[in-house]
Write a structure and sequence with these properties.
By secondary structure, the protein is of the alpha/beta class. It folds into two domains: 214 residues, no CATH class; 49 residues. The chain contains 16 helices and twelve strands. α2 packs across α7 and α11 packs across α13. The longest helix is centred in the middle third of the chain and has 22 residues.
């Protein structure tokens, strides 16, 4: 069992973390796939992942080896430079990243836009809860194995660990593919030059978030380059995966100055956000930017019944109840007249295509 002690300084400094690189999510997706190879999980993502793995039996041993390296790989992937910094490591690490990158492109990337929307909605819900109901309400909602009492967070399962955060607080990071309870990672961040503690928690504590994922089959509107300009439209599309200015420059083969100018305009119009982490910055598309890239189709929603029932018991409504922004669940719904209480339960799993 994990026991994490929070001082007043820790509580004051706890905040939502920048979104993880898709390769970090791929680590959790790999763990989920390997742990369920012998049983059928529902949903389009699970079927796609199983088919990919079945066609590559020679990779099963490698995938299991990467899974065992999670504690070593994930902190590096959560740093601002992400895989670029990790690639400078040992030969074994580079090999693991190569296979993980292949897995990410084949199994995570086709579903990333819908996964990213779930993450954005979760961050919005948790940020609102943190501001209006406090840290305890957020920590009580991060999974059925987690509990909060008198400044102490406990997470059952795993090895016994007692953690003192030393006044630095913790960063809260939702994950679509993480199964089971929350996981706490602590390490020395080489990018920022300080110790970090990140609590990764599942979007749905009952493990049903992947059931909401869908491939993005509709092509992007051809008029977007005409609206924004070809390069700026490419920048916005590229930032569906969080990147630094230098990474963006390299990916699009434009100068750092040009990339910085375009991100400045996109940020000022609310289409992207920029988060500073030490000497680096990370850009990421906002919910508005997602809507510009992928205009919404009629929604197809999947409820986690357990989360909806818990929200009803907590007095926050349900699928047919009043819309409330302070749902206890990890996943926030979309706003609007057709929300049908998604935000109330906090766990509406939207898989709009």
């Amino acid at each position: 069992m994990l026991t994490a002690h929070f001082t007043h300084e820790d509580i004051a400094r706890t905040h939502m973390a920048p979104s993880a690189h898709p390769m970090a999510e791929a680590v959790f997706a790999l763990d989920l796939l390997v742990s369920s190879l012998n049983r059928c999980r529902p949903g389009r993502w699970a079927a796609h992942a199983r088919a990919w793995a079945a066609a590559r039996p020679f990779l099963h041993l490698e995938l299991r080896r990467i899974r065992r390296s999670e504690e070593r790989l994930l902190p590096v992937l959560l740093e601002a430079e992400g895989p670029a910094r990790a690639a400078d490591g040992q030969k074994e690490t580079r090999r693991a990243l190569s296979v993980l990158s292949e897995f990410q492109k084949a199994v995570v990337d086709p579903f990333w836009p819908s996964a990213h929307r779930l993450l954005l909605d979760t961050r919005k819900s948790c940020t609102h809860t943190l501001a209006h109901r406090g840290l305890a309400a957020v920590l009580e909602s991060v999974g059925g194995t987690a509990g909060w009492s008198e400044g102490t967070l406990t997470v059952s399962g795993g090895e016994d660990r007692e953690v003192f955060l030393d006044g630095r607080g913790v960063e809260l990071m939702p994950s679509v593919f993480l199964s089971g309870g929350p996981r706490l990672y602590r390490w020395y961040d080489r990018t920022s030059g300080r110790r970090r503690a990140v609590l990764v928690f599942p979007v749905c504590p009952h493990g049903r978030a992947t059931e909401a994922l869908a491939k993005e089959t509709r092509p992007q509107g051809g008029s977007l380059p005409q609206l924004l300009g070809r390069t700026r439209a490419a920048v916005l599309s590229q930032l569906t995966r969080p990147q630094s200015t230098s990474q963006l420059s390299a990916a699009l083969r434009i100068s750092v100055t040009t990339a910085s100018e375009h991100t400045s305009v996109l940020r000022s119009t609310g289409l992207i956000t920029t988060t500073r982490n030490g000497s680096s910055v990370r850009h990421e598309v906002t919910r508005l930017g997602e809507l510009v890239l992928n205009p919404p189709a009629p929604p197809l929603s999947t409820w986690c019944t357990e989360c909806a029932e818990r929200a009803v018991r907590a007095g926050h409504g349900g699928p047919d109840g009043p819309v409330g922004r302070e749902g206890r669940g990890g996943l926030g719904g979309r706003e609007g007249p057709n929300s049908t209480g998604r935000e109330a339960a906090g766990h509406a799993l939207s898989n709009s295509q």
